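Model the whole thing, not chain by chain.
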Amino acid sequence: NAGVTQTPKFRILKIGQSMTLQCAQDMNHNYMYWYRQDPGMGLKLIYYSVGAGITDKGEVPNGYNVSRSTTEDFPLRLELAAPSQTSVYFCASSYDPSGYEQYFGPGTRLTVT
Amino acid sequence: GNSVTQMEGPVTLSEEAFLTINCTYTATGYPSLFWYVQYPGEGLQLLLKATKADDKGSNKGFEATYRKETTSFHLEKGSVQVSDSAVYFCALNTGNQFYFGTGTSLTVIP
């Protein structure tokens, strides 16, 4: 049982490049989330999904896209990277948000220069 | 709307000191409340939780009580250790989303 896994751990992008951050969980959780954490700040929700084929925007969705074709995977796509997207990105999953905790991946540290 | 307000840090304590980190919340409905801990370079880990009013969550010597009347969920530990040095996040869940505070950095010195 690996929990929530994320790849890559680190990445440096040039302005305007694109990339996909991978996230997978093996706990059969329906709910999955993407957050960004800026230095000294809390977590901000980018997108979330309540099940395969269903996604919804969070607080800061601009510049990102997601898809959820399977229960296990929830990739986050960055198009046209900008310096403002420099951050640490965390993926999380939950069995049921009502009373159940989230399980977090180890994070991806992204720098856009 | 839903939000969590946490005590500003950083907090520095000597080993064996008493710890309190304040957390208050605003929420519609009846949220569940959580404390998460983040060690350097890692993701967040659940520390404890409470799902209804007057519940007390506890783990590893940490405790927090869900106080509906004061909309609070303060984290306490009677005697901190160097290994407790980390960032602590208060969070609430209502509906499909979780809402996090900004985090409180704790450093415990020997």
